[in-house]
Design goal:
alpha/beta; Pyruvate Kinase, Chain: A, domain 1; five-stranded mixed β-sheet
């Protein structure tokens, strides 16, 4: 059994670690609230864009032709490499957050080996480099501060590849956080769109008088769709960031609970060790007193015999 000093040092170490995990929990909580607030202020704009695209399809489906959509006849036989944006964190200490995203990306790579990877986050960069998986482009800015400007930069690069027919589909792998409780790593196709995403599942009535689109419906779609894709990527970046902070909060909370449990066990060990030390001291004092008593009795006995 460890002595009281060793146990006391261990307790101090656990408490120091607990201070760090508590601080990380509070920091993650603050970052998540801020990011969700920014997303809530931005999302209505992109929901409005989606609504306008739906309006175009309700107004005139026949004229709504665009390279961003699958053909209306349902032909989906697109061949060629894919582009995949993988959103990870810059560091660990977030449970299975990064591992779940990597697993989704590897699943896509297994199905389509020619997929070109575009990575956000230091964890993903290090992982793919360590495993010898080529990355088309790594966005070197941090995943800790998602902004609309960065989302547009990513969008421009991906859309440029799509327009030049270097990729036939664009996917994004990120972590979606639902109701602030449940996290899910998912793979979503960004382009091309299925027309039913915008044309169906709407309760709005068809307009009595058709809208006029200048210079044309196709030109309007050419402007709206890139903005919609930028909004989706921004939403994926912020969702991933919120999910990362939520996962870190959960991990730190679990670490705090384990620290409390460990402190309880160490306190019991410390009390037992301290009690054993006290008992040993009492035993030694008692034995010493008895020895002194016997020595004194023997001395008196010898003196009595001498007289």
């Amino acid at each position: 059994m460890a002595n009281t000093k060793e146990i006391k040092d261990r307790i101090k170490s656990v408490r120091d670690t607990q201070k760090i995990t508590n601080a990380m929990y509070l920091i993650a909580s603050t970052k998540m609230r801020k990011a969700k607030s920014e997303l809530d202020h931005t999302r209505p704009y992109f929901e409005a864009i989606k609504g306008e695209i739906k309006r175009i399809f309700r107004t005139s489906k026949k004229d709504a032709e665009s390279r961003w959509f699958y053909p209306e006849d349902g032909g989906h036989s697109l061949t060629g490499p894919y582009a995949c944006l993988v959103v990870t964190a810059d560091k660990g200490l977030a449970g299975m957050y990064n591992q779940n995203v990597i697993r989704e990306a590897e699943k896509l790579l297994k199905e389509h080996p020619a997929t070109k990877l575009f990575v956000v986050g230091e964890y993903g960069r290090q992982y793919f480099a360590h495993h010898g998986i080529p990355v088309e482009r790594s966005f070197l800015y941090t995943a800790q501060n998602p902004t609309m400007h960065r989302a547009r930069e990513i969008t421009d690069i991906l859309l440029d590849l799509f327009e030049r027919n270097e990729v036939c589909k664009i996917f994004v792998v990120y972590t979606d956080i639902r109701n602030g409780m449940f996290e899910e790593a998912k793979t979503e196709r960004l382009l091309p769109f299925h027309r039913k995403v915008f044309a169906d599942n709407t309760t709005e009535k068809a307009v009595a008088r058709p809208f006029e689109f200048t210079p044309s419906i196709t030109a309007v779609l050419e402007t709206l769709v890139p903005s919609y894709v930028s909004g989706y990527i921004y939403s994926a970046l912020v969702d991933s960031f919120c999910a990362e902070q939520n996962a870190r909060m959960t991990a730190m909370n679990s670490a705090n609970q384990n620290a409390e449990k460990l402190l309880g066990e160490l306190s019991v060990q410390y009390n037992r060790s301290r009690q054993a030390a006290i008992t040993q001291e009492i035993t030694e004092i008692s034995s010493g007193a008895k020895a002194q008593k016997r020595k004194l009795a023997k001395k008196k006995s010898e003196e009595a015999c001498g007289h």
